[in-house]
Amino acid sequence: MICILSLITCSAIAQNIYPTKIEGCNTERFGLENDSVSARKSNEALIKLITKNIDNDVLSDLRGVLKIQIIAYDDLTSCMISYENATNKSIGEINITGIKKTIDNELIWDSVDKVVSPMIEIYFLIDTVTARRMGFSGNHGLHELSN
């Protein structure tokens, strides 16, 4: 019984890590990145793609972290499935709709080992924007991956 509950819990977690779920993606079969990066794209390229949708005036005052979960398909395409906005701006101000559209239509991975769900945390600090790739494993829980 415990094994069945564990499998159900892991399956639910694998679908949507962040609280705001977005419809429209093929979520039939994918895993989470766990101990290493499986979908390759530089953090700089991810930051550029995501921030191009945010108005410069909003971007200059933006602080906090935007957490995004994406599915990287084996044909190198993408679909954003969930997010968490822990910034000082609303989802309208950061244009989450535009970010999703850009990820779904323009994010092409350099390589994908298997259909996987990268989790990306974008940190908006004074004068800088950085990104962290996150993984989830039974041994380490949620943790940062090296790119």
List keywords for this structure.
35% strand, disordered N terminus, alpha+beta, globular, single chain
Q: What is the strand and helix layout of this fold?
A:
Elements: H1 2-15, E1 20-21, E2 31-32, E3 39-40, H2 43-51, H3 56-61, E4 64-72, E5 78-87, H4 96-106, E6 111-112, E7 116-117, E8 119-125, E9 128-137, E10 141-145
Parallel strand pairs: 2-7
Antiparallel strand pairs: 1-5, 3-6, 4-5, 4-8, 8-9, 9-10
Textual characterization of the structure:
This protein has helices at residues 2-15, 43-51, 56-61, 96-106; strands at 20-21, 31-32, 39-40, 64-72, 78-87, 111-112, 116-117, 119-125, 128-137, 141-145. The protein is an alpha+beta fold and 147 residues long. The chain has one domain. The strands form 3 sheets. It has a 6-stranded antiparallel sheet with strand order 1-5-4-8-9-10, with helices on one face. It has a two-stranded parallel sheet with strand order 2-7. Residues 1-14 have low confidence and may be disordered.
What oligomeric state do these chains adopt? single chain
| SSE run | HEEEHHEEHEEEEE
In terms of per-residue confidence, which ranges show pLDDT below 50 for 5 or more consecutive residues?
1-14
Task: Return the structural class.
Answer: alpha+beta
Based on CA inertia axes, which overall geometry fits? globular
- What Rg do the Cα atoms give? 15 Å
Average pLDDT level:
88
Q: Provide a count of the helices.
A: 4
Percentage of residues in DSSP E strands: 25-35%
Whole-number tally of structural domains: 1
Fraction of helical residues: 25-40%
Neighbour order of strands in the largest sheet = 1-5-4-8-9-10
Number-wise, the strands total 10
Main β sheet profile? 6 strands, antiparallel
**N- and C-termini, Cα separation:** 38 Å
